[in-house]
Amino acid sequence: MSSKGKSEGAQQQRSGKRETFIPYFILLLIAGYAIFLLISTQVEIQEKRDELDVLTARLTEVRAANEQLERYLRSEEYLAEYMETIARGKLSYAHPRERIYYILPSS
Question: What would you report as the CA-atom Rg of the chain, rounded to the nearest whole angstrom?
């Protein structure tokens, strides 16, 4: 009985250790998941801040372009300048007696 009693006591001790280990393991898993969520949220926040910076810069450019267009529309002098800029730059027009030379790179 003494050898059986010792083995049963040792077995109960091992199962008791397992039972106390399980709550700590679950707590460790929950803490790990919380840390993962915290880090992933911080990364997402930084990505959104970077996106906001890009969009803010783009908004500033668009507002400047809108102000320039409004200035062109308010004055006849600026409107004529704007039309000439569009005709020369985007449509490749020229004045009647004007010649346009295109310089091609040598290859």
Answer: 38
> How far apart (Å, rounded) are the C-alpha atoms in residues 100 and 90?
14
Tokens 């409004």 sit at which residue? 70
Share of the chain above pLDDT 70, in %: 83
pTM above 0.70, yes or no: no
Phi/psi of residue 86, nearest 5 degrees = -65, -45
CA 82 to chain centre: 36
User: CA 34 from chain center: how many Å?
Assistant: 23
Contacts of 88 (CB under 8 A, 6+ apart): 94
Return the half-sphere exposure (C-beta side, CA atoms, 13 A cut-off) of residue 35: 6
pLDDT at 7: 55
**pLDDT (tens digit, 9 = 90+) per residue, 14-24?**
655 667 788 89
Q: Which amino acid is at 46?
A: Q
**Cβ proximity of 52 and 60 under 8 Å:** no
